[in-house]
Design a protein that fits this description.
- This protein starts with 8 loop residues before the first helix and ends with a helix.
- The chain has 2 domains: 90 residues, Rna Polymerase Sigma Factor, Chain: A; 82 residues, Winged helix-like DNA-binding domain superfamily/Winged helix DNA-binding domain (Arc Repressor Mutant, subunit A), CATH 1.10.10.10.
- The chain is an all-alpha fold.
- Helix 2 crosses helix 3, helix 3 crosses helix 4 and helix 7 packs across helix 9.
- Helix content is 71%, strand content 0%.
C-alpha cells in the first residue's frame, strides 16, 4: 500500500484519473471534513444535513475526475467550487434558493446581484431570528458551534455537557427548526 501523505492534491487527482489505486480514496479522506463543514452551513427544509453532505461528496468525486492542472487553479479551489455547486443544485431541486440558505453571506456565489444580496441578508436576519426565537439558549449555542464545524465531543467540552446532551440538543433543534421553517413556508405560500 502506498503512502500518499506527502503527495499533493493536484498530483493525487491526476493519479486518480489514471486509475491509480488509492489516490481517489486519499483525496476523499482529505476533503470529507471540509465537505461536511460546507454542508453544515445550509439548512435543507424537510431534509437532513447528511443529504447535503452526500451531495457534496458527489461534487468532490466530480472534482477529482474533472480537475485539470492547466486551468490555473488549485485542486482545493476547484473542489470547493464543485462541492458548492452540487450543494446549490440540491437546494434548488428542493425548491430552496441556495443564496438564501447559506448562513455565511461572504460565501455567496459570484454573479449575485446587489438586490439578491440584500434579500439574502434579509433572509439571513430572518433565519437568525427564527433560531433565537425557536431554540433554547443551550440549543442555540450547540447549533452555532456545530455550524462552525465543531465535533460533538468539542461542543460537549466547550459547553461542559456530555456528548449525549449535545446530540439530544441537536436532534431537538433540527425538529424545532424544520417545523418552524415549514410553517413559515406554508404562511408565505398563502
Amino acid at each position: 500500500m502506498q503512502d500518499w501523505k506527502k503527495t499533493t492534491d493536484e498530483r493525487l487527482a491526476l493519479l486518480a484519473q489514471t486509475g491509480e489505486e488509492g489516490a481517489e480514496e486519499e483525496l476523499l479522506n482529505r476533503y470529507k471534513s471540509a465537505v461536511r463543514a460546507r454542508a453544515r452551513k445550509f439548512f435543507l427544509a424537510g431534509g437532513e444535513t447528511e443529504d447535503l453532505v452526500q451531495e457534496g461528496m458527489i461534487g468532490l468525486v466530480s472534482a477529482i475526475r474533472d480537475f485539470r492542472p492547466d486551468g490555473g487553479r488549485t485542486f482545493k479551489n476547484f473542489a470547493y467550487l464543485c462541492v458548492s455547486r452540487r450543494i446549490y443544485s440540491a437546494l434548488r431541486a428542493a425548491g430552496q434558493p441556495p443564496e438564501y440558505a447559506d448562513l455565511d453571506p461572504d460565501s455567496m456565489p459570484e454573479g449575485i446581484s446587489p438586490e439578491e444580496s440584500l434579500l439574502a441578508g434579509e433572509r439571513l436576519a430572518e433565519f437568525r431570528a427564527t433560531l433565537t426565537g425557536t431554540l433554547s439558549d443551550f440549543e442555540f449555542r450547540v447549533v452555532s458551534l456545530w455550524l462552525d464545524g465543531m465535533s460533538y465531543a468539542a461542543i460537549a467540552q466547550t459547553t461542559g455537557k456530555d456528548v449525549k446532551s449535545v446530540d439530544n440538543a441537536l436532534a431537538r433543534s433540527r425538529k424545532k427548526l424544520q417545523s418552524a421553517f415549514l410553517a413559515q413556508r406554508q404562511k408565505e405560500n398563502r
